[in-house]
Amino acid sequence: MREILSRLLATGGRLRSAVSRDESDGDQLATDGGATVKTTRGDSLRNSLPVEWELIESAPFWLPPVLLAGFFVYGAIAWNFLLSLTEYNGLGGAQYESFDLSMYSRMLSDGAFWQAAQNTVVLLVVFTVLCLALGLFVAILIDQQIRFENTFRTIYLLPMSLSFVVTATMWAWVYNARNGVLNQFFRVFNLEGAIVGLLRPAGVNAEVIQWLSWNTTALAAVIFALIWQFSGYAMVVFLAGLRAIPTEHYEAARVDGASTVRMYARVIIPQLRASAVSASVVLMVFALKAFDFIYALRGSQPGANMDILATMMYRVAFDSLQWAYGSAVAIVLFALALLVIGPYLYSEYRRGEL
């Protein structure tokens, strides 16, 4: 290894010396206008340097962050995967002498895991689709050059600047069964009894709406709050896409006699595919990171109706001290994140954007 490195350094020294000599040996080329331009053979020689040597020369810049990311990110993922193959409970040291898939087989027979996985997928899909639909609708309205456009856009985007903890605290007040804003609103208009009869689960005897406890409302309440917080992001992405479409496309559709609805449906919205894809990926990442919101809203015991893979992972690993099982759940969550982000990254790589 030392011999190879010394040869590379010697080759680099000779190349740099050749470049320095050739830069001093310029040729004078006459142009049609009588002027002379100095050219050097060093430029062509520098451009002909092998890619491997350029990679070695730039190593001081890219190698440290790669090593840090490899150790703290990918190393941690690998260690987590190894833990999932043991029976480690967080006490003492893990036994790495033998590995098995017992935690994964246990996961497949665990009803709590399947309930959390179902809630995660529902949250992922419903939240993303509704955010995209609402964001597109609001972006089209703003694109009509409405009055106070900047003010409305700022107010609509403001919730995204709040942290999950602040948002969860606010919505906990809204959803409070006794004194929450939502239930108080229904009481003012004498609608609480009708809403209770409509949403109350079978076998439950309650006179007030338990938004965060009933299986008919718990996950929907979380999705609604997250849509309130992040639909502004979809609006901004779609609005940028709309403003990037040339005005000639709008004018051509109007000349053809298309109504506003038909113009957007047939001409404008199909051109927003790239905006929709990029917004979808970011929104799905937000959905997978909903642990902070749910934990601030209900703690580590949100109940089966609101439990997702992230909260289950935390509860199993840190409350029950089943680190190996929690690591297995974390690996499944990591695989789900790869399924969400992987196709987008691959398509961007194929297009040369990465």
TrEMBL record:
Domain ABC transmembrane type-1: 117-342
Protein name: Carbohydrate ABC transporter membrane protein 1 (CUT1 family)
Organism from which the protein derives: Haloarcula quadrata
Subcellular location: Cell membrane
Entry similarity comment: Belongs to the binding-protein-dependent transport system permease family.
UniProt keyword terms in alphabetical order: Cell membrane, Membrane, Transmembrane, Transmembrane helix, Transport
Main location class: membrane
Coiled-coil intervals, chain numbering: none
GO terms classed as biological process: transmembrane transport
Superkingdom: Archaea
Membrane-crossing segments per the record: 61-82, 121-142, 154-174, 218-242, 272-297, 323-346
